[in-house]
Amino acid sequence: MKNYLRPIKILKQLGRFVLFFIALLCTYALSAYTLSRMGVEANPETSKDIPIYIITNGVHTDIVLPIKTIHIDWSKEIKFENTRSKDTTFQYVALGWGDRGFYLETPTWADLKFSTAFKAAFGLSQTAIHATFYNELKEGKNCVKIFISAQQYQKLIAYIKKSFKTDSNNHFIHIQTEANYGKNDTFYEATGSYSLFHTCNTWANNALKVAEQKASVWTPFDTGIFYQYQVR
């Protein structure tokens, strides 16, 4: 009789786990949707000194910055020579923070491994910053131009610098890899942990908050960020 009841107990425990997991996913999805639609307003009392952009590829948000201003020259650390093209004429650099495994080991969704996804979801892997150079950007539903003040830009600079891992001489650490997406991009070691609750889009959303721009209260998805910039 005891041997007969054991499989039933196991099935009941498995059923409870499945129900708990489904409830957890539903709570996550509901929270992500609700909090991403709740907005943080931009500071209205600032000058419009410096243009920045937010862009998305449909999944991932990058913050795009002018390479050279009186405040910083990003090319001194994010070097043109680290790209395949080695082109020095670019005007903008797009920066995105994320899970290192996703960036370097998953060129397409078909290449996604369970181990990579599991480590990323629970903050068990390293992070990286993907830098892509541009000459110009075209505004549209996937590319929004924002003007910020010099003071706001300095705050944004500090936030982004803290996201780069540095060596003993305080230089950004370049990742030597053949996993570049094209001729004009490169990767750097990053600080922080990626997880379900702090994704690449959460990082970009927090960057907008630091720069006192419109943002979501919290969002793990790019849709939450761009929702705040829709004309309504």
Structure description:
The protein has 232 residues and is an alpha+beta fold. The chain has one domain. 35% of the residues lie in helices and 19% in strands. The protein contains 6 helices and 8 strands. It has helices at 2-37, 100-105, 114-121, 150-163, 200-210, 222-227, and strands at 39-40, 50-56, 61-66, 92-99, 127-134, 143-148, 185-189, 215-216. The strands form 2 sheets. The protein has a 6-stranded antiparallel sheet with strand order 6-2-3-4-5-7. Strands 1-8 form a two-stranded antiparallel sheet. The radius of gyration is 21 Å and the shape is globular. The model has no long low-confidence stretch (mean pLDDT 90).
Short description:
This protein is 35% helix and 19% strand. It is built from six helices and eight strands, in the order H-E-E-E-E-H-H-E-E-H-E-H-E-H.
